[in-house]
Each structure stands twice: as C-alpha cells, then as structure tokens.
Amino acid sequence: MSRYRERMATVLSAEQLSTALADLPGWSGGTDGISRTITAASFPAGISLVTAVADAAETMNHHPDIDIRWTDVTFRLSTHSEGGVTEHDLALAARINELADLATR
C-alpha cells in the first residue's frame, strides 16, 4: 500500500490553501479543488506533458483530472475521497509545475 493511502488526508482550510497557492504559480481555486491551465508549444508537446504528469501521478498514487484542448492542458486536483484539497494535491501541483517548466522551455 502506498504511503499516501496509509496517511490520513485532511482537507485544507481556506487560509491554509491560500497560503499554499501563493507558492504554486499558476494554480487557483478553492478548498473543493484547484486547477491550472498550461499552454504548450504544440499539441504533441501538450500530450508529452500529460504523459509526464501521468507517470508522476501514478508514482504518487494521486491522479488529476485532465482536459486537453489543442495546446491548452488543464489539470484539476482534489482528493475525492476526502471531499476537497489536501496536501496530496499540493504535492502533485508542485510536481506538475516542475514538469510544465521543463515542457515549456
């Protein structure tokens, strides 16, 4: 069983989330979910980003909702089992930002 499944996830308060989002460029939302849209250089670049995020999400055992519209890729995060945003979502958002930075260079 993954470490993420073993630890209890607690939904963040609005204040905790606001503080966390200040350190996650491009992300916005509320305690029920956060999202970020990234514009890739091309459709294949966007798909490559999705593949990289899928690999990271699988490793973390925490999966985003993903919407692809040509070069715009939107990631939505929420810990569905807990009914809102938890530390798991923040960790994945940070990883998505790292991958996006690499993909958009």
TrEMBL record:
Q: Which UniProt keywords apply?
A: Lyase
What reaction gets catalysed by this protein? (4aS,6R)-4a-hydroxy-L-erythro-5,6,7,8-tetrahydrobiopterin = (6R)-L-erythro-6,7-dihydrobiopterin + H2O
**Superkingdom per UniProt:** Bacteria
Q: What is its EC number?
A: 4.2.1.96
One Pfam family from the record = Pterin_4a
PANTHER family, from UniProt? PTERIN-4-ALPHA-CARBINOLAMINE DEHYDRATASE
Q: Provide the family line.
A: Belongs to the pterin-4-alpha-carbinolamine dehydratase family.
Name it: Putative pterin-4-alpha-carbinolamine dehydratase
Native organism: Rugosimonospora acidiphila
The top of its lineage is: Bacteria, Bacillati, Actinomycetota, Actinomycetes, Micromonosporales
